Amino acid sequence: MRKTQAYGIVLTVLAIGAVVTLIAAPMAGMRVITWPEALRSGPGSPEHAIFWTIRVPRVCVSFLAGTGLALCGMAFQAMFRNLLATPFTLGVASGASLGAALCLRMGLAFSIAGLSSVTIFAFTGAGLAILLVYGLGRVRPGMHPTTMLLAGVAVSFIFSSLILLVQYTSSFTHSFRIVRWLMGSIDVVGFGPAAQTAPFVLLGSAAILLFSRELNLLMMGDEIALGRGLDPSRARKILFLAVSLTVGGVVSVCGPIGFVGMMAPHIMRLLVGADHRRLAPATLVFGGVFLTLCDTVARTIIAPVELPVGVITALLGGPFFVWLLVARPSPDSGLF
After folding, report:
1. Across the chain, what does the average pLDDT equal?
2. By three-state DSSP, how is residue 112 classified?
3. Are 75 and 239 in contact (CB under 8 A)?
4. Residue 280 and residue 73 in contact, taking contact as beta carbons nearer than 8 Å
5. What pLDDT, on a 0 to 100 scale, did the predictor assign at position 139?
6. How far apart are the C-alpha atoms of 274 and 261, rounded to whole Å?
7. What is the secondary structure of 265-296 as a DSSP string?
8. Residue 230: helix, strand or coil by DSSP?
9. How far is CA 231 from CA 93, 131, 180, in A?
């Protein structure tokens, strides 16, 4: 009963925090623009353009990306029984980064159905990575976790080396744009990027939430999962597809924003425990709030200059794991 009440309190606080963040974040900037001021301003005014064309869409994308990356990190940690796994473990981010680097290297600039050339190339690269890892993962029957991890590492190394080759052969301008994209940034204008990201995040999140019981069984091992009537191979295939498409959709718009998918599940395990039926909803909400706050800091801390949000998450990620190491949680905390 106490655990249920504690979980309810944590989820309520997270929900309130999410609402407050979504309301307050668009107002922050080099100049504070309140909601009444934004609603009163006309379509041609600078306040209207800044608030409704830049800030609100950016908050929407950051919240969607945070929820997607956090849930995907949690799913991979359970699938591979490795709490250091991240949404980028299987090379999807490297594939997307290679696609974006090639697009920037060639100087392509076009749009199809509202999708920019960089987004199209990035998602194509992510899809290629998914196919390669899936194909290599079938070398051994049953989609063995170790085989998938090794396949993901191999694909990631190959794509990373190709990115370095593309960058080395690029001009100074193209090289700068590639490095800037690889830092991860939520630099969006209008609601188009949010509309592009939402289907991947919503479908992927729904699949992960529906498989929360299966994630508990996968965390215990394939033998126990089989004994409870679960086909581990089938569950991993579905989760692999859902997670990979979600990560591909997020990275194609925002770039590879690191540490969100690793930090958010760990923090929530400290608060709600390791049961994925409770962990998944909490991680979803916390991930969105966390990345939205990080992006708000990134665009205001040295305004009018904006930092890539990936820099902020990386700066927080390192000290977090140092603290985690020093804290030495108990074995039954679900962390190790």
Report:
1. 89
2. strand
3. yes
4. no
5. 74
6. 16
7. HHHHHHHH-S-HHHHHHHHHHHHHHHHHHHHH
8. coil
9. 28, 22, 42
- Extract the residue ranges of the chain whose pLDDT is less than 50: 330-336
- pLDDT for position 334: 43
| Beta carbons within 10 angstroms of residue 69's beta carbon | 33
Region of 231 (left: φ > 0; alpha: ψ -120 to 50; beta: rest) is beta
Q: Which CATH number applies to 2-333: 1.10.10.10, 3.90.550.10, 1.10.3470.10, 3.40.50.1360? A: 1.10.3470.10
The pLDDT tens digits for 121-165 are 999 999 999 999 988 877 766 667 888 888 888 999 999 999 999
| Helical packing angle, 56-79 and 192-210, nearest 10° | 30
Q: Which residues contact residue 6 at a Cβ distance below 8 angstroms, ignoring those fewer than 6 apart? A: 272
Token pair for residue 111? Answer: 């749009």
Give residue-wise pLDDT tens across range 176-214: 999 999 999 998 989 999 999 999 999 999 999 999 999
Tokens of 320: 């977090």
**What is 22-82 written as a DSSP string?**
HHHGGG-SSS---HHHHHHS-TTSHHHHIIIIIIHHHHHHHHHHHHHHHHHHHHHHHHTT-
CA atoms within 13 A on the CB side of 330: 4
The pLDDT of residue 222 is 81
Structure tokens at 87: 């949404």
